[in-house]
Amino acid sequence: MSLMQEMSQRALDLGVPMSVHFDITYRCNERCVHCYLDHDDHGEMTTPEIKRVLDELADAGTFFLTFSGGEVLMRRDFFELLEYARRLMFAVRIKTNAVMIGEAEARRMLQLGVDQVQVSIYSHRAQIHDAITKLPGSLRRSVEAIRFLNQQGLRVTIANVLMTANMHDHAGVQALARELGVQYTLDPTITPKMDGDTSILNLRIPGSELNGVFHNESLVGNVEEFCAAPPAPDEDVMEGYPCSAGHTLAYISPYGDVFPCVQFPLPSGNVRRQKFLDIWNHSPELTEVRSIRAKDLTVCSSCSHVGTCTRCPGLAYMEGSMRGPSTADCEKSFHRTGTRSANMLRLDGGQHRPAPSGPLIHIQPLTA
Amino acid sequence: MSTKYIAKSSAIASRLLGGEMMVMSAADSTFFTLNPVATVVWQAADGLTPLSEIVAHHVCTEFEVDPETAYRDVERFVDELSHYGILKVSEQPFADSAASPTEAA
User: Do residues A14 and A62 touch, judged by C-beta distance below 8 A?
Assistant: First the structure.
């Protein structure tokens, strides 16, 4: 077990929210076609309000703090908040489209001891990237910013969300990351909008492409290992937690709403009305999330993928039940291993039921 | 024995977890955990209190250890953390005792 895993286990045992994803604004200078957010400002928290929340997070034991949005630099007080967070000794990670980052901003981030900066890049081709962001010139500006950040010595990762519009460009983005000397991560997940609108799910890449992604050594490493058939789940798996959401991870919106995770829109309290630690320790919603073990999952507990699936309880929640399956993850498990999930077999309505033991066809004569 | 002062680097993240301090270097994300004795020293590293006073007033009062052994062990710990760049050591008190991240190197 690595030191990091040891710390995560200790945080889980102690009930400490070790990681918090804090969207400080939903406003954005891009209008990405797959974005799940409403970019209007419906009353963001003020600078003093956010500072108070940061104090509370430090008291609660939060170590990793991710500032995200929207676009974080749309807030004029961003560097004031960043400086405040660093004074409280958080390990700060920033998710940004970087188009507002110049040399001075990059230098400031280094001075403030930012741990990592993640920049969204959709394609190495401007016509594709800019069509997704709907901001002309955005690829050029984001790439220029990555150079500034990298020159300062900051750790930068290019995050490449895959959708129908850019599904053939991941190799190009990977090459761009190599050329820039930064890390690369790919995510084929498109989530419904926060208001429940599922229309953007049409942008998800088709299964055949997903299959190609999962069998691409440059993306997944050892393909044989990554795509191996799921091992039979043991007791530890069945008694395990689905993911860290609500256990060691929390999400806070610009309006102060607290959720188990950015992808899990289960309202669990609001830091404008309650102290963060009161929500974390006493929210009935978070208590319910924490009570769920793999053995409690309605369909997935009987699925061969239960121990290895990336099942997202937030996506499952948006599909109707936090204990139910997330069909997007069923698809991923299937295209990764070739083995259909219990949910897929159930939804097939019998078309892919397992063959019976004994003779495949057996005719029983009717007797009077 | 020369007087030493210690201050936390501004390019680190740290948090107390279950009585042990987690420390991460922002320079390379190297991760450390400090045991309870090292945690006491870390928390007292304000840049203004001499190391000998930290040992006498924090380590020796909280843990059953003789002052000479304690000072020797703490010095070794300080050298090690200084080597990783997460603790600053000086023979003079640090001007900015808060070791603010605003002046990170």
Answer: no
